[in-house]
Each structure stands twice: as structure tokens, then as C-alpha cells.
User: Fold this.
Amino acid sequence: MNKPLLEIKGLRKWYGAVEVLKGVDCTMAQGEVISIIGSSGSGKTTMLRCINMLEEFQDGQILLDGEAIGYEEHPSGRRRKSEKEVARQRALTGMAFQQFNLFPHMSAAQNVMLGLVKVKKMGRDEARTLAEQWLGRVGLAARADHYPGQLSGGQQQRVAIARAIAMNPKLMLFDEVTSALDPELVGEVLQVIKGLAAEGMSMLLVTHEMRFAYEVSSRVIFMNKGVIGEEGDPKEMFVRPRTERLAEFLKTSSFQ
Amino acid sequence: MDPNFLNDLALFANEIWIARYALLKGLGVTLSISALAILAGSVLGIGVALGLVYGPRVLRAVIRVYVDIVRGTPVLVLVLASYYIFSTVGLDLGPFQAGVLALAVFCSSHIGEIVRGALQAIPPGQAEAAKAIGLTFGQTFSSVLWPQALRQILPTWVNTAAEMVKASTLLSVIGVAELLLRTQEIISRNFLSLQFYFLAGFLYFLINFGIERLGKYVERKTAVPS
Assistant:
């Protein structure tokens, strides 16, 4: 078997005295699309945010393409990597957020170009070409010079996805990207993600869209109280949940 | 028209002409005091804000004390303190330098609070999104946070700048020959107090009107389309 793209080993995280991740183990192969589901407070978003060090974690290891993320082991104990090194590692993954988080003072194209110019040290012309290419891919070629305030929620989220993908990440992280959208705008965003999945992009999605998780994922992880409650093929899991917790969760969620 | 009024007007014009150099020098000194205080105060104020928002706990506490003390002290007291206290420790600042220093310190505490507020008002998701594409803290600040904060700050910054121009009159008490002191000297010679105080007031208005127009212009230029 090939070396896994992502390995999470014994991941533990506390907020003060509250333990939100209680030892998560998970392996992901190149090209896999994994949906993470679970009720709020189960730790699914936190887990995603640990992978690009938006959250610190206190124990365990995250390996991306064999490289330890965020911390290194020393004889004297575990040490956080330098800010510069963490920044470099963050660029290995792309992330799309629930609230889009586009930079409001920049046009759509400038949003996409920022990382290319500052992190990838690309020339402005080259970055602009690439930005236009990716904006075209998410169906927004004509909106390249619009500002976030001039775009709908669905369009903003597609720009945000283009901004992340243009950096050519090894792994895309999607954090409830449709939760803040009006129902009629959800489809256009999911369509973009489906397209990326079809091209073999490795993706981890935290989602409440059970139908979408069912259709697009190669595997589903059900998080429950800070640990993985159940994981497997969505076709299997959604139809015949093995644990009672998952059965309950599926009953209350929108999946029919 | 009343011939007396025309006479008075001619007299006033003549007195302005006689005092023209004194007035211009005073205006020049007022402009330099204000410009220096605003510039130094803004630079210092940005430093204050950075310390308050991103500094380690000890630094934050120190800056917080500095800001609270300076903001709670009347500007006139700062001006007098700066002029008289430094000389007792052997640092002999002239009235101009001491005055500008006092105003800059005062300005920095206000600008510091304004910038701090603007930085903290930016949703945390902005910095997270910048981090997520691999930007370092410096890049995040200069490309994402600062441009957004600046647009927030501008209107209040114009206010503070106008306050500094007005506060520059306080330097007359330590003998800086700025516009107000020059005006008083002129009045003591020709006794046209109403006319010359009015003229001084008008000149201060012009300066602040100019600052306000400049602020509006920059605001328009940097406005984000929506």
C-alpha cells in the first residue's frame, strides 16, 4: 500500500479543563474524500482545525505526507515548530470556512492572488492568470474584479474555495462550507466540491449535508464526544449504522 | 454703506498688513507643531496599539498604564510637565521640542486606543483565512488586517488630528510663538482684540477644514465597493 496522505495518531486537545478530542486515530489515502459528521460539540471542526494548526493540540501526532504538523519531538519533550515553519505547513493544506472569510478590501481575483504572490512568490501576472483560471473553474470568471460585498454568499464561498485550491494544496479541508448559505445557494457550492472530488482532490469535509456526504464521500467518519464513533463506507453506514449513537444521529439529521 | 465701517475695515486691513510676518510665522509654527505632533503621535500610537493587541501580557500591562495615565491628564499639564520636568533631570528641551513631545504623547494615547479598537473589531476569521493560505503574521498584518483597520480609523483619526491643531494653542503658555501667542502680541500693540481673535479663529478653522477635506478625500479613494 502507498504511504498514507494523512495520519492522525492519538490526537488529543483540551480547551482549559475540557477535553474536546480524546484520542483520535485516522488514516487517509491520497485521493480520498472523507466526510466528518456528528452533532455539534463532537469535535469534528476542532479536529479539522488541528490539521492546519488553527488550533493547537496537546497530545498526539498529525502527519501530512509523512511530515509532522506543528510540533516536533525532542529528547526534552514536544516542542512547537517555529511560526515560519508552521506557516509553510499551513500552505500544504487549503481550507474553506463556514463564514467564507474573504478579504473584503480585495477583489475576487486579488483574494486568490494574495497567497500566490506572498507565499508562492509568484509574479503578479502569473498569479493573475492562475486566479482567473480558478475563478473560471468555479464559474466566476466574469466576477474576477468584483469585491466580496458585491457577491452573493454562494459566489463568495466559491471564490474562497478557488483561493484555497489555487495554492495547490495536498489536502483540502472544508469546514461546514454550506451552513451559512441560503438553501438555494447550497447547490452551486456543492457542485464545485463534487467537481474537485471527481478530479481526485483529497478532501476532508465537515458537513451537515447528509445527502451530499452520502453521494460524494468514499468514507464517512462519525465523531461522537471527542472520539471517532464509527467510520466506513457511507452506503453501508447510513443504511445500517452499527452503533446506536449513529442511528440516533441519523434519525435527527436531514438524511432520509 | 456706513463710512465708519469702511474706515474700520481699512484700519483692520492695514494692521493685518503691518503684522503680516508675525501672523505668517505664527501660522507656520502652528502648522509645524501640529504636523509633527500628529505624525509622531500616529507612529507612536500604532506602536501602542500593536503592543496592546499582540504584545505579551507584561508589555500590555505597561502600555495600558501609560495610555490610561496620559489620557487622564489634561494636555496643559502634559505640556507644562514636559517643559519643566525634563529640565530638572538635565535634559534641556526647548519650549518647541518639549511642547511637541507633550502633544505627540497625548496624541499617541488616543491614536493607540483608536487603532486597538479597529484591529480588535476585525472578525477573527480574517486572520484565520490568511493563516490558512500560509501567510506569516507579518504578511497577515500588512496585507489583511492593517488595510481593514485603516479604513475604520480614518474618520476618528481626522478628529484627533483636528484636536491636536487646537491643542497646539496650549504651547503659548510655555512661550512657543505659535499663532495664538503671535495674535496676542499683535493685539497688545493695536488693541484690535475682536478683529484679531476672529482672524486667528478663522485661520484655525481653515487648517482643520483642510484636514477634514483631506480625510474625506482619502476615505473616498480607499472605499471598498459593495
